[in-house]
Design brief:
By secondary structure, this protein is an all-alpha fold. The chain has helices at about 5-25, 55-70, 90-110, 115-145, 150-160, 165, 170-180, 200, 205-230, 240-260, 270-295. The protein is globular and about 60 Å long. The chain is about 65% helix and about 0% strand. The chain starts with a helix and ends in a 9-residue tail after the last helix.
């Protein structure tokens, strides 16, 4: 895909993915009175900050949108239907998605209000809580496929005739849990809790909130699409075109993540950190050992190019 076409494809897919999430994520898929980042932001009162850092505060939603577009760049909707098939695509994805999350922290810090700065601190704490479990979850598909390319990971599952969710159910469960933390969905939406009055988002004038809604809706889309790529075989499948399979699997991931999130009580930042270090990281290390053993036994190993 040429550079110009790749840019156009990336922008259109980012907007389409955000619109898809906004359409299928009704407000009740928050958690009780905690709608999270997907709330209807037009009804949120605007609380103008008295002393905002205009550069940091103004740049935050722009940085978030740029990071979203960068993340979409390596999502494969077909063998050739991808913005850029990078050899380090999986590592690249983990880095650029975190730039979007740091943009949320940037917006909270730049607003310079007590609640917004607290949102900033809690965003960083949440990042610390999920980043290691997420890395341990996604390393399993990379090990089995022997590649960090998202296209190679899809093709490896097709050659083996096995979705990695079957071979790595523990890794898939870890990805879902860490993905909910990464996308600020229930039960891990502490930075957008009502007690903080959604201070970071409320510090922006209504027109700029539209940018945040695109970025935060798109965040769930890219996390779900990466889950479909790593564990559900991505665009590979019979009868339907590749892009249709990828879309259906991404939709299934979105619905699964939102539904499971509502089954658990909301977690505070401290509880997320405890959950990560006491449970998710040990399970992630166990998952790596199990995947290594499966590879030695030849499970999930198709003919490699």
């Amino acid at each position: 895909m040429g550079v110009g076409l790749a840019v156009l494809w990336t922008l259109l897919l980012a907007l389409a993915g955000s619109a898809l999430v906004a359409a299928i994520e009704p407000h009740r898929l928050g958690h009780g009175n905690e709608p999270g980042p997907a709330a209807e932001l037009r009804t949120l009162p605007w609380r103008r900050s008295r002393r905002p850092d205009r550069w940091l505060h103004g740049a935050a939603p722009v940085v978030a949108l740029i990071a979203l577009a960068w993340a979409v760049l390596i999502l494969p909707f077909g063998r050739e239907l991808i913005g850029a098939d990078l050899g380090i695509g999986l590592f690249y994805f983990l880095v650029v998605v975190d730039i979007l999350l740091l943009a949320v922290a940037l917006g909270g810090w730049g607003a310079d209000t007590a609640d917004a700065v607290e949102c900033c601190y809690r965003v960083i704490a949440q990042l610390v809580a999920y980043v290691v479990p997420l890395g341990l979850a996604v390393i399993g598909p990379a090990m089995m496929a022997r590649s960090l390319s998202t296209v190679d990971i899809v093709e490896a599952q097709a050659r083996a005739g096995l979705w990695y969710v079957v071979a790595q159910p523990l890794g898939f469960a870890l990805f879902v849990a860490a993905g909910l933390m990464q996308s600020y969905r229930a039960p891990f939406l502490e930075p957008f809790a009502q007690r903080l009055q959604q201070a970071m988002l409320a510090s922006y004038a209504p027109p700029l909130r539209a940018l945040w809604r695109v970025a935060l809706s798109g965040l769930l889309f890219v996390v779900a699409a990466m889950g479909a790529t790593l564990f559900l075989g991505g665009y590979a499948g019979p009868w339907l075109p590749g892009w249709a399979w990828m879309l259906l699997k991404t939709l299934a991931m979105i619905v699964l993540m939102l539904g499971l999130g509502r089954c658990f009580a909301l977690r505070s930042s401290a509880q997320m950190l405890a959950l990560s270090w006491k449970l998710l990281i040990p399970l992630g290390l166990l998952n790596v050992l199990v995947v290594g053993a499966l590879i030695l036994l030849g499970v999930g190993q198709g003919a490699f190019r």
